# Entry
Amino acid sequence: MGRLRLPLLAASIGALSLGLGACSVNPTTGRSQFNVLSMSQEVAMGEEAKSQLTAEYGGSITDARLNAYVSGIGNALAAQTEGDYPNLPWEFTLLDSDVINAFALPGGKVFMSRGLAEKLTTEAELAAVLGHEVGHVTARHSGQRVSQSLVVTGLVIGAGVAASQSDSDMAKIGVPILVGAGGQGYLLKFGRSQELEADALGVRYMVKIGYDPLGARMVQEVLAREGGKGKQPEFLSTHPYPESRIEQINNLLKGEYAYTQNNPDYQLFADRYKAEFLDPIARVKAQTNADARKDAQVAAAALSGRLGAAFAPGSIQTAPRAQNGRLMITGVAAHDPGSWCAHCATRTPDPSTGP
# Structure
């Protein structure tokens, strides 16, 4: 055991020295944190992974008005962030998915599903969800997790090696960690303290632009209800501890943000959310469903027409007459493939090749 302790101690000291070399003070949290990635490398990783994750959720909503509404709120929140974070290339994507979820990639790429947005009733709730994800970005939670994984697996040895890599090279190394395990493996690694910290940051940002932070608690209540229906929303698997999160928000409402309660300067904006999001998204879905039904009807009518023409009375003789083993069709050239049904066309030999 004594012989084993020296290598372990040396390894621990080496890991510590690497950690110190990669530590910096985050202007959002005020804490020193371990991160071998530069911010430009995190941005490159988020950009690299964005398309894959969007595709995994069935793409984004194409309605320009809805996208502008969500992006407008997201960008207003991002503008309240600390340090140089307002200058990140922020993007807020509304995914066309029934899955109840929201997540963020490092560098400012934030995603929210239509399924979650439709469960909300106020704009303040939407701001709370987006603010939570903005908080993950500014606290650099994903960057921390990826950094730890890179060092533990030996893919990167310290901040100096990471800094020597180009942004695109680091993106290729880090993205598999980000999008592993069904597209969101990295989110599953967020700990309780990181989730609570993102909640608190989200409340900080939403209050700065006039939202009632009660909306943050309302989101957790929505998720708790959805989680009680038997099938757990994906959001709950990646953002655990709803009871603890509600408790923290209640403490914030009673303490730091007590001044916002029953204060007309801080609103939930339920009517605006209904007019700007819920009603338009309902119309988009209704139109999409109507278009799908119309396409199905057109396809069915076309198929019916082709079959009807192929088997209409007189189109094929009641007792087909064979000539050299080929079907004879009334009123048309016997060897005109355009006059045959699909079955006959595939089974009748080509006249140019003989019987």
